[in-house]
Design a protein that fits this description.
This protein is of the alpha+beta class. Helices cover 43% and strands 15% of the residues. The chain has two domains: 93 residues, Phosphorylase Kinase, domain 1, CATH 3.30.200; 173 residues, Aminoglycoside phosphotransferase (APH), C-terminal lobe (Aminoglycoside 3'-phosphotransferase, Chain: A, domain 2). Strands 1-2-3-4-6-5 form a six-stranded antiparallel sheet. It has a two-stranded antiparallel ribbon with strand order 7-10. Helix 6 packs across helix 8. The longest helix has 24 residues. The protein is globular, with a radius of gyration of 19 Å.
Length: 281
């Protein structure tokens, strides 16, 4: 969802980075944590939507600065200092050209190359800059699990329980850099090549199979065997896809548009069933 920029948003952007033509900028409102004011081909102003996002902004900017020299694609590095106001924090970042890939399609070689780059990052020096696993809606504790199972049809509950039991066993996997939302408009492509990766807000040291799962969710689950580095990682990614589907159901139940819940359950039922079948294999 986009809208014209407000005068105060343009004024803030101009004060932080006077070099861009902010007067023609548009605002994207779809992000969970930030509003994004885009001066096309020039710069991007990220403005926090919540107090927590404001408090986390400097850490997130520092993480991108730490990662950028080690990755072979463009990163949204900072063009201004982080600014803190009374009701939000903001920073101007580099504009990343390109657009989201066509859904349910993709070159396995290029997707695998992206995964290999992430796998090559040493997460130990990033310990103070990374989010925690399950940072978005918290871990699958008793309350969250019970609430989610209560939203499902009885025929799906056993499959959901099997998926959640399986991912609990993935805690022993050596952690690697996980982007946290490696799909859709967070991954930009230009002329068939990867141009850059945005939105590192949820990046964590976690099971690397999650990166394969995020890519498969957008580019097609049938590509998992070709993009995952190993057969075992492809298997875990398939199970994670089921858990991510349950996360989507839980997330909708917390929002204002709970009427979408039935449609979401119908949309992800087959994915949860495939994940349960993989977990039991």
């Amino acid at each position: 969802m986009t809208r014209p920029a407000l005068a105060r948003e343009i004024a803030l952007a101009q004060s932080l980075y006077p070099g861009a033509t902010w007067e023609r900028a548009r605002v994207e409102e779809g992000g969970q944590f930030h509003l994004v004011l885009i001066a096309q081909d020039e710069a991007v102003l990220r403005m926090s939507r919540t107090n927590d996002a404001a408090a986390q902004l400097q850490r997130r900017v520092d993480l991108i600065e730490a990662l950028a020299p080690h990755l072979g694609f463009a990163m949204p590095t900072a063009l201004s200092p982080v600014w803190h106001g009374e009701d939000c924090s903001a920073v101007v970042q580099r504009f990343i050209p390109g657009a989201a890939h066509t859904p349910l399609r993709g070159d396995p070689v290029r997707l695998r190359a992206l995964l290999d780059q992430l796998a090559g990052i040493d997460v130990e020096p990033l310990a103070g800059l990374l989010a925690q696993p399950f940072a978005f809606r918290g871990p699958w504790n008793t309350a969250k699990t019970s609430a989610t199972l209560g939203l499902l049809p009885a025929t799906l509950m056993a499959d959901a329980e099997q998926v959640l039991a399986a991912i609990a066993g993935f805690d022993s996997i050596p952690p690697a850099l996980v982007h946290g939302d490696l799909a859709g408009h967070n991954v930009h492509w230009l002329d068939g090549e990867l141009s850059g990766v945005l939105d590192w807000d949820l990046a964590a040291a976690w099971d690397p199979a999650l990166n394969s799962a995020y890519l498969a969710m957008w580019h097609g689950e049938d590509l998992l065997g070709q993009i995952a580095p190993t057969a075992e990682e492809a298997w875990r990614a398939r199970v994670w896809l089921g858990a991510m589907s349950l996360e989507s159901i839980y997330n909708i139940s917390l929002g204002p548009d709970a009427g979408r819940l039935e449609a979401m359950v119908a949309k992800v039922t087959a994915r949860i069933q495939r994940a349960a079948a993989a977990a039991s294999a």
